Amino acid sequence: MHPLFTPDGSLTLYSERFGQHYHSRHGAATQARVVYLEGTRTHLHPAPRVLEVGFGAGLNFLTTLSSALERGRALDYLAFEFDPLPAALLAELHAQHPLAGHPLWQAVLKTWGPGGLQLETPELRLEVRVQDVTGAALPERWASALYLDGFSPAANPEVWTPDFCARLAAALVPGGWLATYSAAGAVRRALAAAGLEVHKHRGLAGKREFVTACRT
Ligand SMILES: C[S@@+](CC[C@H](N)C(=O)[O-])C[C@H]1O[C@@H](n2cnc3c(N)ncnc32)[C@H](O)[C@@H]1O
């Protein structure tokens, strides 16, 4: 896998298995901030609890951790990933990130393994479960934010089905927000059918719209 620069200076990767990139080629870090962090209001939350579908290269996690550390808020982050990347690749990909040398990111890289990881400090509780999220038990009424970041619905359909969206909706606390880069009609309908209030937003440069959805 060869890292590829995106216009905002951040890197992404190409997945041979899914035939697409891990992030927006129009700005990987911008997508993580605008769609996921800000789209779910996590940058404003006093005690964020994030549930992520697809930990991937950990960019959404690092973006969320930066915001929590800057604001002096503890972050609780639970992610699912069935195909974990090697720690060396994660380190290489984020070598220029402002948190690259931070003890918490270094601890993540050190603890990272094929079985996932669990890390608990006063500032961060991070758990990455290495399993297919569609068969996993999800916490109910737990997440203030849900990052739905699988590969595209065409390439990775199982994480966008109406049934799975209903399970995701149940994991949100009332008032919690889900965000996803896909604005496909079927995805919006699945989220609405799960009882969420769906909002479509103007996309990043050159990209289609993205979607946020609130559990009212
Ligand atoms: C678009 S990438 C995620 C990028 C990541 N959120 C980041 O910030 O770097 C999609 C990820 O979802 C994972 N994935 C896809 N389907 C999955 C499933 N059913 N269960 C667990 N992980 C899945 C893929 O292996 C891939 O790492």
Automatic annotation (TrEMBL):
Concerning InterPro entries, the annotation shows: MnmC-like_methylTransf, SAM-dependent_MTases_sf, tRNA_MNMC2
Asked if Transferase is a keyword of the record, the answer is yes
Source organism (scientific name): Deinobacterium chartae
Q: Which GO terms describe its molecular function?
A: oxidoreductase activity, acting on the CH-NH group of donors; tRNA (5-methylaminomethyl-2-thiouridylate)(34)-methyltransferase activity
Q: Which UniProt keyword terms apply here?
A: Methyltransferase, Transferase
GO terms, biological process: methylation
Taxonomic lineage is:
Bacteria, Thermotogati, Deinococcota, Deinococci, Deinococcales
Where is the MnmC-like methyltransferase domain positioned along the sequence? Answer: 115-214
Judging by the UniProt lineage, the source's domain of life is Bacteria
Protein name stated in the entry = tRNA U34 5-methylaminomethyl-2-thiouridine-forming methyltransferase MnmC
Which NCBIfam families does this UniProt record tie to the protein?
A: tRNA_MNMC2
* Pfam families linked: Methyltransf_30
